[in-house]
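task queued by scheduler; priority normal; single chain, no ligands, no partner chains; default sampling; output format set to structure tokens
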Amino acid sequence: MRGRRVLMESFVSHGVRHIFGNPGTTETPLLDSLPAFPQLEYIMALHEGVAVSAASFYAQASGRVTVANLHVAPGLGNGIGSLYGALKAGSPVVVTAGQQDTRMRLNNPLLGHDLVAMAAPVTKWSVQIERADEIAPIMRRAFKVATDAPQGPVFVSLPIDVMEQETAVDASTPDRLWRSTRRDPEGIEALVALLLKSKKPAIIAGDDVARSGGEQALVVLTEAIGATVWFEGLRHHAPFPTSHPSYRQSLPGDARQVRKALGDADLVLLIGGPFFEDIWFAPGGHIPDGAFVLQIEASAERLALNNRLDAGIVGDIAVSVSALTETVRAQASADFRQAAQNRNAALAELQAKEKEAYRARLEKKLGPAADCDAARHGGAASRAAR
């Protein structure tokens, strides 16, 4: 069979439903194959940056690996900014671009360039398929790498002549992978031992909490230890309900302001990063002096990356957070449980005061008859108005 058929069957077998693209001449093998694969919908964009961004958003919203299809060097160049965004967002996107016929490469063909080198800085893996026999194994690996934690985009260059070559290597079925790392009992015990010493714990929650479906597990843990919850300033998901009294706000973009926001927290638990990708330089660290730093991540790559840790574990986020809560409840003293309840009550009272202050500011600005329903949306609106 032709290489292009293997490519399309690889898409189908890995659950791809949509291809977002802006094609040209080198993408004709893919386009010519579309009628035989009605289960794949090609969504045309007017710019490659839009195509990659749409694929990234769809991958984030659906949780499915998505494909973006670009046109040779200028098209890939147009998509680089959006590829960078997909990398920072952790979007599982497989980006392809047609490449000029490999038999022309010594002639510097029009629009040709080293696509692999162009894409490498903004992807998890960048590769060119050189023979039709490589299509199936490379595509299998591309989908695997894109969905490995931390997730992110992969780039595959598709020379037009390779897509038309014959091959006997069929598309492979997806790998059956169980990636969740079993919780380490010693690691959980180490985290809990420090949590139970804390008198003012703070949690900073990242996107991977939401990706793991761990939002409710985080709520339960937060209430069990009486913590405040903060979001990273640059994020794509809401990993904790912003109407909850423990939610404070998104952290600012420099170390000094982060440290100021965390205040007198004596323990900071980082969950599901990345963390502290600052916008502005400021001297000093992000963590208040003397505070313990704990971290839970789905991949070792992010563990202890930007901070020295007093304890950190790798594991499924939702499972690890639930295990932490179970152990806290089993080991917490009556004094700790009472202190946690007191902290929760204080945060609820603070939220009520912030709502009232926000309502008062609206009435002062718009008059007593103004509709103040917005004040019901919680402390987050109040803090945003300040």
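post-processing summary
- The radius of gyration is 25 Å.
- Residues 378-386 have pLDDT under 50 and may be disordered.
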